[in-house]
């Protein structure tokens, strides 16, 4: 028997990076402002690292998690994989030219990765490991985390462009 209700445990787990960032920030601020010598100097980088953790944790925690969907998502440095019992898809991240999220009534949220050949990979946000899709965005400069948060809270049928590769045009 657990002393913490499952809902409370899920909320703590969702906000864990924010909590860790707050603790590291507080520790760094304490060292930077009150300690003398080397510990005082170490406090400033610790404070900055804590603020970075806090900011990243806030972005991640604001995306409403989904679960119970089919498939498993895996991410390594070069590719994103989505496996189903009847197959799956592998997306080389270097070939992605567009990332979008489509929502539909009934709490449906689907990530769509489009490659240079126009092939589209549809990955539901309710798949096991789908939180890794946020980690994949780190490889795409200018990806809009705010659009992900907005899509996460959408209830109707919408499409949100998260990132699109800039094309150079010659005149």
TrEMBL record:
Keywords: Membrane, Transmembrane, Transmembrane helix. The chain crosses the membrane at residues 12-32, 38-58. The keyword Membrane applies. The keyword Transmembrane helix applies. This is Uncharacterized protein.
């Amino acid at each position: 028997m657990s002393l913490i209700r499952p809902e409370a445990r899920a909320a703590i787990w969702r906000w864990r990076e924010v909590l860790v960032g707050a603790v590291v920030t507080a520790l760094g601020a304490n060292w930077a402002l009150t300690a003398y010598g080397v510990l005082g100097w170490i406090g400033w980088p610790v404070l900055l690292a804590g603020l970075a953790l806090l900011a990243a944790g806030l972005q991640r925690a604001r995306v409403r998690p989904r679960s119970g969907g089919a498939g498993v998502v895996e991410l390594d440095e070069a590719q994103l994989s989505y496996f189903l019992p009847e197959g799956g898809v592998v997306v080389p991240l270097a070939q992605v030219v567009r990332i979008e999220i489509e929502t539909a009534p009934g709490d449906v949220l689907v990530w769509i990765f489009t490659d240079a050949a126009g092939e589209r990979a549809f990955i539901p946000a309710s798949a096991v490991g789908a939180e890794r899709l946020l980690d994949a965005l780190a490889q795409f400069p200018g990806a809009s985390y705010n659009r992900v948060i907005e899509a996460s809270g959408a209830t109707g049928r919408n499409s949100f462009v998260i990132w699109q590769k800039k094309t150079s045009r010659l005149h």
